[in-house]
Amino acid sequence: MASGYVINRGAITLGIQCQRACRNIAFTQVRETKRWTKTYELHLANKLKRYGPPPPKPRSQKPNWDYHVEVQAFSARLQENFSVELLKTAFVNPCYLQAEQNRRQDLGLDSEVTALVLKDNMKLSAQGADVTKSFLNDWCRASFPDLPGEGVESVVGHLTSVEVVCYVAKNLGMDDLTMSAEFPIPDDVLHATFMAVIGALHESSGAERTGFFLRDFLISQLIGKDLFDIWTVKNPMGLLVAELTQRNVPPPEPRLIRSAGSSTVLPLYFVGLYSDKKFLSQGPGETLTAAEDEAARVALRKLYGYTENRKPFDFSPQQNHQKVLTSAVGSS
User: Which of 8, 205, 232, 254 is the most buried (most CB within 10 A)?
Assistant: First the structure.
């Protein structure tokens, strides 16, 4: 009885001491999350939902920006020997000069005292576009000698299109350095800037380095592309007949090889093409006409050397390959 009383009294005393100790301890939040954080984040979420996201700002209006250093870093990142003055000129678009001149006139500044000493990139852009088209045309004819002129024009047009060029330019970081009157930068302005950079590289490093630059960044965009995704042929069978006639080969004869589900909603037909009792190609389709057109496209790919299992493009800096690139760009 006495021992139980002593134990109970000791437990009560220990509890009182623990309460006193807890009152003197300043508890801190282990996860460092303040109580006002939830309310603040909800306020930001409601503001974003009500007013929308803030307008984008160019990189030059953000902290830690040095334009001269960024231009030099761009040249070093690409491992090209650009002339710094030419590279800066390549990023100055005429719309930027016009907008800057109008802004200074609106501020009431003297046009003679505050005249801009910058040059636009129109000359470099025109030069870069001519060099690019000439090189791509010569490269395409050298890589695919059997491809007709219309196909070469389609491939060159695809590689120099606004979509492909802007994709390459944005991945190279040119949009951060481009001086434009609008932001986000319009695609036509970015396209002209990329061509101006090509012109600056041609002026700074010559034809050989320009050829390697175009090969590495533009021609590589053909990887994984089908020929007839680039070149739209409305009548592939007619084109195949013309190509075979030009090569003194009898015209192709379509034959149904096999079919499946012909009486269902999703039929499948395989049509083969034969010429002089020799197998040319085969192609699938949901109808006989579609299968025949697909077989003609397969045969055209074989004739032009643009098959899926063709030899990969040569991206190695060999001496013989350098001569081809130099002659292609130098001819422009």
Answer: 254
